[in-house]
Amino acid sequence: MRQGFRVIGHAIKAEPGIFTAAVLASAVYGVMTVLAAWALGWATEHAVLPAFKDGGAPSGALATAALLIVGTALFKALGIMGRRILAGIMQFRMQARSRRAATRQYLRLPLSWHHRHPTGQLLSIANSDAEAAWGPLAPLPMAVGVIVMLFAAAVAIVITDPMLAIVGFLIFPAIALLNLVYQRRLAPIATRAQELRASVSEVAHESFDGALVVKTLGREDAEAARFQARADELRDANIAVGRIRGLFDPLLEALPTLGVLAVLLVGSYRLASQDVTSGELIQVSYLFTLLAFPIRALGWVLAELPRSVVGWTRVQEVLDATGSMEYGTAALPADAPARIEARAVTYGYDPEAPVLRGVSFEAAPGRTVALVGPTGSGKSTLTQLLARLIDPDQGVVAVDGVDLREVARGGVPASVSLVPQQTFLFDDSVRGNVTIGADLPDERVWAALRLAQADGFVSALPEGLDTRVGERGATLSGGQRQRLALARALVREPRLLILDDATSSVDPQVEKRILVGLREQASTVIVVAYRMATIALADEVVYLEQGVIADHGAHEQLLVRCAGYRDLVTAYEREEAERAAAELVDEAELAGEFEGEVVA
Amino acid sequence: MTMQALERSAVETVRQGFRLSPEFRRGLAGTLVLAVLATIGKIIVPIAVQQVVDEGLTAAVPDLPVIRNGLLACAAAVVLTALCSYVMNVRLYRATESGLATLRGKGFRHVHDLSVLTQNTERRGALVSRVTGDVDQISTFMQWGGLMIIVAGLQLIVATVLMAVYSWQLTLLVWACFLPVVFALPRFQRLVARRYITVRERTGDVLAGVSESVVGSAVIRAYGSEDRTADRIDAAINGQRKAQIRAQRVIGLTFPVTELVASIAIAGVLILGVALGADKTITEGELIAFLFLITLFIMPLQMGTEVLNEAQNAIAGWRRILGVLDTPADVADPADGAVLPRGPISVAFEDVGFAYPDGPPVLREVTAAIPPRTRIAVVGETGSGKTTFAKLLTRLMDPTSGRVLIDGADLRDIRFSSLRERVVMVPQDGFLFDSSLAENIRFGRPDATDEELTAALTELGLADWLDGLPQGLRTPVGQRGESLSAGERQLVALARAYLADPDLLLLDEATSAVDPATEVRLARALDGVTRGRTAISIAHRLSTAEAADEVIVFEHGRIVQRGPHATLITEPGVYADLYASWTTATRSA
């Protein structure tokens, strides 16, 4: 709970003005609630009872009473309005603040950090956790107002009658205590229900994502059973929540009611001994009635605290995450193809099992280097190091002799363009996706599209360059998306172009045209490749095996001296040759049998 | 076939919803009786006040023992009604949660029963919402808003009845004050709902922006577009905040308005009551009790907007779930489907045509017979109809015209369990579940032992790969299998299908992301294990075609060539062209 109040403290420090205004409005509301009860008591004492007793209405007192009642209500209404609107403004501002800070951090933190955090988690931190963190801010001003209300009520009752005050001092702490017990009991069960709700959602998400596999293997029943088990757990947890709520809510309502009855009981004795007037008795009873509901706001704040602390902690973990990319001040040359150098580079997602170990190689300006290796040999990781999406654990990656870590912010993207294996399109127009904010004329965009063999389908799109693509835009095939991603790299005329299997969904004929076009570009090109046609276009090959460079040289040299490489790239040819040989044997055997028959 | 956007009325929605989850009705009558009893508790205080004032205060000598006994009786009644309230709550939670768990289960199951075609017309997230968020919305409403409607409604009725007993004139006055609020509520709620819709839309923008910064993290860094992305997200977040505050401003109004109206009612009752008191038509106790009764009007009206809003959301959610359940499983498990005996399988396509709804034909007049134990390669350019052929063969979709038969039986007449046992497809995207390697392979045959899993991998020539994994079969594969490479995921998917031991194995570019050496090893192993079965491979690498008994060539939705590789290669045509471009792509010059 102390942590919870600390979270609230942060919010107050961040938005002191709004908070003060909200609390003031709420205090007005609190005081006016007590005054409303007093006004009613005054009306009873000075207008109602005399009227009934004497048979005539003292019209002056009656008018005053009516004015008092409507007047206090007016101020109370203003207080409520201010409190609610200001509390909302504060809550939403803090949410927006957290969201902004978290997403800034997502953009700032290095890619290696992203690798360690699942997408779903990061999304929910910026969305639901940022919301949960500031959940208590909505009822907070009201709770503060209630405290003011309680003080005012206490003063009012003590002034009225000490005996009645004793009833109040018994009832209100009891309500507060009950509230506390309620929230203590509820919090763990509610948290569990929340977790189960997330897990039900996870199962559904995963199962629907894998719907095709479920269907093709006929596992619908098993999946339905798996889901129902979670749904039933959630049901039980929700019923458990219901039991607690079902018990405490009526209790919290019954307590003030019992309080009023106690006031009436004690009050009637005090009235008999003429220690209080009937107006005062009505005033105190009415006050208890009015307090019954607002006092629960204290509980609402307490109820939100555990969720708030969890949410805030999760957001804070993102904000506190360190290891951001540091930038130097060096500049890379502005033109001419880049010279690349990797010196003893080691990198691991898990430090125990590095993906790359002591990788060293050089590529001269303007060369096209094919990066070849079996599945999982570290090719993609190497491309990310070359584009400085990640920094090596040991060793140096340098372009034109400059360690990439020394380059000023923005310097690497200005020189190096990487097209990753997984195509990503922004929720933006074709133009936006190609330029990504750079101010480039349409001719350059079209030229890049042409080079990426994407001009044909883009010009066929309903709005050409302005057609929206991405998640909520036009549906493009995998190959078309890849070609847009490629154009995005080409339009920058990078000095180093890195293609990480970036044409895997493109038809071979189209791919060939792209690769031939690329040779005309004045860039150094690194291309991750399996296909012989791609490798054939490269000047040299770097062959990776289990995170180390097994060989580096011209394709023909590697074919001769590197067995692993030969096995990999000639797999299809060898297979065909073997099959042809086997067929020869088969034919020979057939022929043999035939001959045998003839002989027989 | 898309999800039905049938606009059924609210009443019809609720009726249908109740029919689907009979648990809602269980003990409903008892719960309602308890609700009435619980509500009566609310008028105990006004009655007690009236009694104390009339019997105690105004009498010359208050009869204290009578007052005391009366108040103790009231206290007992309060405790009793609280108890009723407790029992009612528990019953309500139990009934609604049980009904909702059933609804979730039915919805989930039905989503899996929908054809892939229907599944693909909806966004995944939307389908998930049907069994999560939408149900939660109904749950919140039933346990809070729905309860509130019952309790508040009863509260208004009970209060009005008691008021009318005291004085019909004052009752009319109170209602005259509150009636405009009651009438204004729905109008006001519509305004609030509109603002909330804007909030939801803006929230969608924020989610899209945030997901861009996470999913696109590599591209954003590679192109140095952090600042631009940050600006886009900031704009979305600001839009969301503004919409939220705009909504809050409207919602902030209901409470104060009700307070003001209540105060006017109180003042009016005071003035009129005193006048009536002069004629002795009302006692002072009754008048004061009236003032207490007016407070019972405040809460229902203050909560009214929010309750109506939640009701609307809940009905909308319910409607959406019913929409899913109403969507016919257009590829349905036949009621009295045939169960085919195990054994080598023959396939026949008879004049099969297929077109997506409102789309041009994808397959035309496809007729082909595949005898048992043959191994077929299906080739063709992207969009030629290969994958549609596979989907029809596994009955992921039904043909628009013609028939698909296995062992002479129409697929539409074969029980799903039998069909799925005999025909298994390995799709291109080897989707894995977030558990261990073993659990994922076992998905193909749940009762397989670890030894059988290892044996299956060994038979597929993947023993070395398995040995290379840090934790062997226990290796966690991560969400969607993302801890493994795309190629490795395909290996698992293949092992999973192989373990299922089908009579017909259908591979839809199942090894496209595997490196050539592994693919060749795998192809060789598959060659062995598919011997004696019918096997169909959709191939983009023609090495597969060379190894097959026969090749079927698709172009523009038709079968244009068919025959062994060795024959087709010699004929001028689509296959010879494909082969030529493939060899240049994979062979050294």
From TrEMBL, chain A:
SUPFAM superfamilies cross-referenced by the UniProt entry: ABC transporter transmembrane region, P-loop containing nucleoside triphosphate hydrolases
TM helices/strands, residue ranges: 21-41, 61-81, 137-157, 163-182, 251-272, 284-303
UniProt-recorded Gene Ontology molecular function terms: ABC-type transporter activity; ATP binding; ATP hydrolysis activity; ATPase-coupled lipid transmembrane transporter activity
Membrane topology designation: Multi-pass membrane protein
Chain ranges of the ABC transporter domain: 340-571
Principal location class: membrane
GO CC annotations, alphabetized: plasma membrane
Taxonomy, superkingdom: Bacteria
Cellular compartments annotated: Cell inner membrane
Keywords associated with the record: ATP-binding, Cell inner membrane, Cell membrane, Membrane, Nucleotide-binding, Transmembrane, Transmembrane helix, Transport
Similarity-based family: Belongs to the ABC transporter superfamily. Siderophore-Fe(3+) uptake transporter (SIUT) (TC 3.A.1.21) family.
Protein name: Multidrug ABC transporter ATP-binding protein
Organism, as annotated: Acrocarpospora phusangensis
TrEMBL record, chain B:
InterPro entries per the UniProt record, alphabetical: AAA+_ATPase (IPR003593), ABC1_TM_dom (IPR011527), ABC1_TM_sf (IPR036640), ABC_transporter-like_ATP-bd (IPR003439), ABC_transporter-like_CS (IPR017871), P-loop_NTPase (IPR027417), Type_1_exporter (IPR039421)
Example of a GO cellular component annotation carried by this entry: plasma membrane
Domain named ABC transporter: residues: 347-581
Coiled coil spans: none
Keyword list, A-Z: ATP-binding, Cell inner membrane, Cell membrane, Membrane, Nucleotide-binding, Transmembrane, Transmembrane helix, Transport
Domain ABC transmembrane type-1: 29-313
GO molecular function: ABC-type oligopeptide transporter activity; ATP binding; ATP hydrolysis activity
Subcellular location: Cell membrane
TM segment ranges: 28-49, 69-88, 147-166, 172-188, 250-275, 287-304
Protein name, entry field: Multidrug ABC transporter ATP-binding protein
